[in-house]
Amino acid sequence: MNTDSLPQEIQQLVKNNQYKHEHFQDLIRDGGYMPPNEELIIDAITALSMGKNILLKGPTGAGKTKFAETLSSLFQQPMFSVNCSVDLDAESLMGFKTLSYENDKQTIDFVPGPVTNSMKHGTFLYIDEINMAKPETLPLINGVLDYRRTITNPFTNEIITAQEQFGVIAAINEGYIGTVPLNEALKNRFIVIDVPYIQGDQLKQLISNSTKLEDETLINLFVTLSKDLITAVEQGKLSEDAASIRALLDACDLTTFIPPKRAILRAIVDKLDEDREKAFVQNLADTLFD
């Protein structure tokens, strides 16, 4: 993959290092994600343009999936997705065989999975929560992730070599319940990009663009709430779930119809497991919102 995959207008801005150009920022915004700093988008575009795999690492709700979707939009690339879990197996990655009928005769067809589809069509493959998969499952795609870009389909014995535009974006939530550390062989196949929470003016803009909330005073209060939650997470007072930007946006949406404190209760507080954390967040909400 190279920058020729990017739209002409993006190519020119990238070649001229005009990442702060207003038009470039507008194009990023159209994809749905504004990175906290320009280096994130620069480095991601650079790595993907060079045919590297990228691993988006950050807390839950920080916008990693939106980041991947924005990159897909910038490169004008469709994206097939794998959602990892302990149940992930070869069929979930490669596809499966199924019985069908043709002229009243039974046949066996192969239904391609996301890895097969993305390699054959030359599109992006997005592997979400890659460290939720069992360690013995992912080595199947090691050859897909290195210079070979090749895999033997275990169900058909077909040797698949990825088309030129194929690229891999993965996401990881470290320390999350049910996750396991990535082994070094897998981690070394990625360029790692840390994705922090969006804060300040960028979060204000995200709320304005992505939710139904229009009241500027309330938007500013939610930005302050987010900052306080992130600080509490960094100090070890709250789990990462409490500071999820996704949950905050849900609360903003609900606030257009119900009182803010009740919206925060439904979208953030009630998702927490510990009564201590629930009380902490509720206290922050009581302090900020009448």
From TrEMBL:
Looking at the record, the residues that make up the AAA+ ATPase domain are 50-196
Q: Which Gene3D superfamilies match?
A: P-loop containing nucleotide triphosphate hydrolases
Classification via Pfam families: AAA_5
Please give the superkingdom of this protein's source: Bacteria
Coiled-coil ranges per the record?
A: none
Mind telling me which residue stretches traverse the membrane in this protein?
Answer: none
The family this protein is said to belong to: Belongs to the CbbQ/NirQ/NorQ/GpvN family.
Protein name per its UniProtKB record? AAA+ ATPase domain-containing protein
Q: Which organism is it from?
A: Oceanobacillus kimchii
| Name of the gene encoding the protein in the UniProt record | yojN
